Structures are given as structure tokens and as C-alpha cells.
Amino acid sequence: MFTNKRIKLGFLALMLILASSTSLAAPQWCYGTVGYLWMYKNGDLYVNTSWRGDYVRVCNINQNLGSVTPQNCASWLTLLRNAVTNKENTIIFYDDAPACKDIPTYGRAPVPGYVMLQD
Fold it and tell me: Staple 60 to which of 6, 43, 76, 95, CB 3.0 to 4.6 Å?
């Protein structure tokens, strides 16, 4: 039979686990270079960045991805293409994501809030 003390300890452990998992996500400004850029046949735009070291989906050129429209995606494609060509630094902002190096890869990546060139 569970005692009152065991229930309290179990509840405390559960609260600590929940608090630690939710604290891992926060606004992230991911700085670095874009080494590779590719677009999948369905219109998904992927980048391989120095801060992640793997591919993350940025947007879709054919349909809305979250609040990112195809028009925004086309602009981001141009910006990112220039960043690759000129080896310029970029900043990709995420409203709520784990640390940049831990952002999920490929289609599991969160949708960015913005993409910009860094001076």
C-alpha cells in the first residue's frame, strides 16, 4: 500500500521532471553559417548550419508552414542562397526551441520566426 509520504515524493519527482523538461525550450537566436541548402520536391527548404551540424527545415515554398507563407519562404530562400554563396553569417530565430545545437533535425525542426543576415 502506498503511504502518504511515498505519494508526496512521487508527486515531487514528477513535478521536478516536468519543470526540467519545460525549461529546456525558450527563445533561441541561432548564429552561424549555412553550409548547404536544398529543397525537397514537395517544396520544403532545408539548411545545414554550423550551429546545428545537420539539416533543419526552414519553410515550404508551396504552402504555409506554421505562419510562414510561401512568399516569406521565397524571400528566405534568396537570403539563404546569398548567405551560402558569400559565406555570410546568418541568424535564425525560434520563438520556442531547445538550444540551437539540440534543435530537432529535418521536418521535426520548429518553424523559425525569422531568418536574417548578420553584419
Answer: 43
- Say how many C-beta atoms besides its own lie within 10 A of residue 15's C-beta: 10
Which residue is it, cell 504552402? 63
Contacts of residue 103, Cβ cutoff 8 Å, sequence gap at least 6: 28, 30, 52, 56, 94, 97, 109, 110
The pair phi, psi for residue 83, each rounded to 5°, is: -65, -40
**Domains located in the chain, CATH noted:** 26-117 (2.40.50.340)
pLDDT tens sequence across 13-41: 555 554 444 446 899 999 999 999 999 99
In Å, what is the CA distance from 98 to each residue of 3, 63, 118? Answer: 37, 25, 21
